[in-house]
Amino acid sequence: MTPNTKTLGPREAELITRLHEIGKPVFILNDASELTGLSGQSLRNMIHRLTKKGIITRLKSGLYATVPFELGRTKEYMPNPYLVARAIAQQQLKGNEGKYYISHASAMDLHQIVTQPQFVVYITTNSQVKTHPTVSGTEYRFVTAQEKHFFGIKKFWIDKSEMVYISDIEKTVLDGLKMPEHCGGISEVAKGFWMKRDKIKIAKLIDYAERMDTGAVYRRLGFLLETYDVATTDDLDRLQRKLTKSYATLDPTLPKGGRYFSRWRLNLNLEPDELMAIVRT
């Protein structure tokens, strides 16, 4: 619902109405400038007035959110963190010049395959973002990926009118296998995989792995599929053919150690029995 525009000036009312029309409850100063034609001090003055009236709230420098009408003129309002992530990505990537998607543990959260509260939102972008802002206790952490790794991305609807881009379930698993440190370790990726094993398409996983063409992903994926006995011999052979002679650590978030497993060229600092125990609990 749009705030009562009778309490607002013409430009203020125009901005709030347009933000609702285009589905941007979280916005940056550039959005406000484009929608009102204002800039500089005039724009800042209008934003200040709206903030003082409780129509919008400041999340961080240059980042704002419209306050839902039913909350009144509250000065403290935190919108959905994934909508904040979308706006921060836009802010850091300067609009449409870069690409983003919600990834790793955050994508796992949206796919409902995590059990722990999330205090970091992971955003993968195709260009480097050096800042990692914290908004209302949530850290927004950017991960850089090559352009060729921007596939397996889908729309996820936060509500009836707001959506963000996230990795699909198969790409989420592979991103987790590539960088377990952004998911809480291999054990968390394994648990997530097990929870959705009936919906995950193994052939698609392997197709995606070949597109990523990352040695550690081939190794960890093959080991995971074989440990959980969810792939055919042909599936495992496809991954085996991609292996080189070098070794990778199964879980880089844990201390190195354990035995070397030549079949998948892995240093097993987490044993198959431990991975099986994780999904039986």
Low-confidence stretches: none
Q: Percentage of helical residues?
A: 40-55%
What is the mean predicted local confidence, pLDDT? Answer: 91
Structural class by secondary-structure content: alpha+beta
Number of strands: 12
Individual helix count: 11
Note the gap between the termini: 45 Å
Strand order of the largest sheet: 4-5-7-6
Secondary-structure element series: HEHHEEHEHEEEEEHHHHHEEEH
Radius of gyration: 22 Å
The major beta sheet can be summarized as: 4 strands, mixed
Strand-residue proportion: 15-25%
Q: Please state the overall shape, judged from the principal axes of the Cα atoms.
A: elongated
Description:
α5 runs antiparallel to α6 (169-178) and α6 (169-178) packs across α9. The protein has a four-stranded mixed beta sheet. The chain has a three-stranded antiparallel beta sheet with strand order 1-3-2. Strands 10-12-11 form a three-stranded mixed beta sheet, with helices on one face. β2 and β3 (63-66) form a beta hairpin. Among the domains are: 5-71, Winged helix-like DNA-binding domain superfamily/Winged helix DNA-binding domain (Arc Repressor Mutant, subunit A); 168-281. It has helices at residues 10-21, 29-36, 40-52, 81-93, 104-110, 169-178, 186-195, 202-212, 215-227, 233-240, 272-280, and strands at residues 26-28, 56-60, 63-66, 100-102, 120-125, 134-135, 138-144, 153-157, 163-167, 248-249, 259-261, 266-268. Helix content is 41%, strand content 17%.
